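Query form — protein Putative NBD/HSP70 family sugar kinase

QUESTION: What is the three-dimensional structure of this chain?
INPUT:
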Amino acid sequence: MKGGANLPLVSSYNRNLVLDTVRSYGVLSRVELAAMTGLTGATMSRIVRVLLDDGLLMETGKGESTGGKPRTLLRIDPTGRYAVGVQVSAASTTVVVTDLVGAVVRRQVLRQGSQREPATVIAATGASVEKVLASADVPRERVAGVGVAFPGLVDADTGTVLAQGGVPGWAGVPLADPLVRGLGLPVLVDNDATAAAIGERWVGSAATASSFGVVFVSDGIGSGLFLDGRPYRGAANQAGELAHVVVHPGGLGCFCGKRGCLNGYTAPHAVVLAARAHQEGHAGCALDLPPGSSSVRQDYDRLARAYAAGVSCALRLLDASAEALSVAMSNLVEMLDLELVVLAGGGFGRMERLHLDAVQAAVGARAEQATTRVLLSPIASDAAAVGAAALVLHREFGARMLGLMS
Ligand SMILES: [Zn+2]
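ANSWER: The structure tokens for Putative NBD/HSP70 family sugar kinase are given below.
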């Protein structure tokens, strides 16, 4: 746990450090908080008073006495603030409202249909946020802001899409500004995998981990990194482009121009494409994928069933998918000394366990990496939407040296 600083200059840092410590550990007394943060008892009492008055902390009974009077226990007041999280994907937009601990209090999914032009999607998103906020019945003044998770490269500082991922036509589109004007709330935009990583930090399995990686899988595959207690975006907002990590030198050609990228072996859309190509070239293939258009999700589900039934080309494709991911993640853990790897996004569906086991085996193969945990996300398919809400909570309440280090 980081130490607090007993200086007036850093009072907002101290406030967030106390909040972050309570959030990470659930329930703590003032004495425990002072010991964990290095703040004096008097400073701690003053900060806790402000947080109680502001509705961010609440008292929750008495703890065991260690000789003196019983200690009053503190925890986060979930109703103290709310945040809106939006996940944009090719087919749909998911909007959630979460409370201060990231629990979803309202959720709505908008199907885009053929209306996928950015201006239309942004307008529909704004209307949906208003509607979900109204139905959640939360006080507007307690809504800290709106976070948007986008499946492509994003300039998190300006809220502009730099390059489209799975949704065409968005390169260069300012996403945050029109939403700010329409909603009158702060809006943050980030890559969906980075948002998922921040979501894991706030409500998932990474509450206390200082360095971890999230493998985020929807139709495509990406990763979000959290290093030394903060999200890591890289020099040009391109960190964590897991799809284009080479796992087979000289292997399959990739649209990015390289060969052997993870994308070609493990992204669900690529696995489905390979399965369809195999089926077309082999008259006796038992995959049974239906002719004509079908969603990646449906086809991937069919492949999972074929895998369970022991169909040989499904075994070959999905075992190769898991092996490729295990190579990429083992290298990533080796490079970055991660204490935790989380598989999130729900894109692997029933093949989640296969990929988890492969990554666990590869990461655990070297004794020095054996302490690295590999887990499935408890937030599952809402990871990016909840992560988008967590972007707002993290910006507002995350423990970092505001103005001094950021
Ligand atoms: Zn590539």
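ADDITIONAL NOTE: The first helix runs from residue 11 to 25.
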